[in-house]
Design goal:
The protein contains 10 helices and 2 strands. It is mostly helical.
């Protein structure tokens, strides 16, 4: 029984970490603060970005999640002196990404539903990342599949939220590139070979950013925009995994092409 328990983190630590992050989200909603506009004026160039308490709290909650996950993983019996950076990436992204829709959802039942959904996502990502530290854990396969699905869902949420908030292109493109690259990097690292495939991650991030830039001025709804970006991310990551397993290119490209086509067709019919 004790051996099985070692595959799961301390319930007290998980509870403290999740409660701290959720409290930060709630305080961001309750506390009203003035908006400060960051401006940069140069000849022929004017940059203005509104900075609010929500902006600062999104960064702080992501940092809180990163330090908390590091604290959580250090108690794992099999981690030892190994780096835990790969187990910090996705929880940090999860906290940062879910802060975006929570900041734009209207007050009332809708916001509380989003808040509850955020709590569920945090529980899943913290537990799953802890389990994947040890590949011999009984639930490793489920945790790996859950993290993969969660990563794609996060990207869909981010792309949809950026479109819904009316983010300008100079914010949209870097955000899509960074998040797509990090998600791809984490998913490829979950294949069990302990490899960091930076070329594929950067390349996929650039492709997603270029697609996002191209679709920015199209009359798409937020969910259409999100699907149009998530499909290529999933397809290209799948292609990278297949090629790493030495599957012939023609056969490896078939599945990703179908996935991309289905995602774009779904986006069209959702209009």
């Amino acid at each position: 029984m004790q051996e099985n328990r070692s595959y799961l983190p301390s319930a007290d630590r998980v509870g403290v970490l999740i409660a701290s992050v959720l409290l930060a989200f709630a305080l961001t909603r309750l506390i009203q603060s003035p908006r400060f506009t960051l401006t940069i004026a140069l000849p022929g160039f004017y940059f203005a970005y509104p900075v609010t308490l929500g902006t600062a709290m999104s960064i702080l909650t992501a940092a809180l999640s990163a330090t908390g996950m590091s604290w959580l993983t250090r108690e794992h019996p099999t981690l030892g002196q190994k780096s835990n950076i790969e187990h910090i990436m996705l929880p940090t992204l999860t906290t940062f990404v879910i802060g975006a829709p929570l900041s734009i959802l209207p007050n009332g039942i809708v916001w509380w539903a989003g808040f509850s959904f955020a709590a569920v996502l945090l529980v899943i990502v913290f537990l799953a990342e802890y389990i994947t530290i040890d590949p011999s854990a009984p639930a490793y396969g489920f945790a790996r599949a859950g993290l993969t699905a969660l990563a794609y869902a996060l990207f869909l949420i981010l792309a949809t939220s950026l479109r819904l908030s009316g983010a300008r292109m100079f914010l949209l493109v870097p955000a899509i590139f960074i998040v797509a690259a990090l998600i791809c990097l984490r998913i490829l690292h979950l294949d069990g070979t302990d490899r960091w495939d930076f070329p594929w991650a950067i390349g996929i991030g650039l492709v997603c950013a270029q697609i996002g830039a191209g679709l920015h001025y199209w009359p798409l709804t937020p969910i259409q925009f999100g699907l149009a970006l998530t499909g290529p991310l999933y397809a290209l990551t799948m292609l990278s995994t297949s090629l790493a397993e030495e599957i012939p290119l023609r056969r490896a490209a078939l599945g990703p092409a179908i996935i991309t086509g289905l995602a774009w067709i779904s986006a069209i019919f959702l209009s």
